Amino acid sequence: MLPRDPIHLIINERAGRGQGARAAALAEGVLVRRGAHVDVSHTQGPGHAVELARTARERGAAVVVAVGGDGTLHEVANGLLRGELLRGEKNGATRPVLAQIPVGSGNDYAKMLGISRTDPAQAAAALLDGPAHPVDVGILEGAAPRDAPDAAPELFLNNLGLAFAGDANARI
Questions:
Q1: For the segment 81-104, what is each residue's pLDDT rounded down to a tens digit?
Q2: Beta strand spans in 4-119 (E)
Q3: For residue 30, which of 126, 165, 149 has the smallest C-alpha distance?
Q4: Domains of the chain in sequence order
């Protein structure tokens, strides 16, 4: 069994039309009642979860939880893994388990793993009781935010939209 303590929640309060804070409170309540040590940080805007995840890892979190949608999860995954994967380091490095308390309407990653997308308390209990699932991570070369002067590689977890899908997501 993997160590599941301490747990660090990275909360996107705006996820799910403002339901992120409520979901985080429900999840944190379950985790604390079950005896877990829980640290919490809140995103302040796009890209901030990358920094928060990197800091949580450096401070020894055993589990880093994205409380939000697929975008929050994407940022947390990049904060936890991007540096070592792009340097070519293989599995075996000490790193936290990535988890998600899904908030919002999409949450494709949570759906793929069978995590409750409607009950944050149930998702938190599964974080403690359920198995860890190894997943593939893809690398997209040349990805960059719109305002970035240079393209840089980014990681993706469960899907990658190009052409029409990418354009549609950018417009949303």
A1: 876 666 666 655 567 888 999 998
A2: 7-11, 38-42, 63-68, 97-102
A3: 126
A4: 7-171 (3.40.50.10330)
- C-alpha to C-alpha distances, 1 to 4, 5, 12, 130, 133, nearest whole angstrom: 9, 12, 29, 10, 12
Q: Considering the entire predicted model, what is its pTM?
A: 0.82
**Active-site residue, 70 included:** yes
Joined tokens for residue 19 = 């339901």
Q: What percent of the chain has pLDDT over 70?
A: 77
SS3 content of the chain, % helix, strand, coil (to 5): 40, 15, 45
Name residue 122's amino acid: Q
Burial code (b: 16+ CB inside 10 Å, e: under 16) for 51-70 equals ebbbebbeeebbbbbbbbbb
Q: Which residues touch 127 (CB under 8 Å, ≥6 apart)?
A: 4, 7, 27, 31, 63, 65, 99, 101
Helices and strands (H, E) in the chain, number of each type: 7, 6
Residue of 5, 39, 70, 129 marked active site: 70
Segment (H or E) for 156: strand 154-156
Residue-wise pLDDT tens digits, 129-160: 888 888 787 777 776 666 666 667 777 787 66
Predicted confidence at residue 97, as pLDDT, reads 86
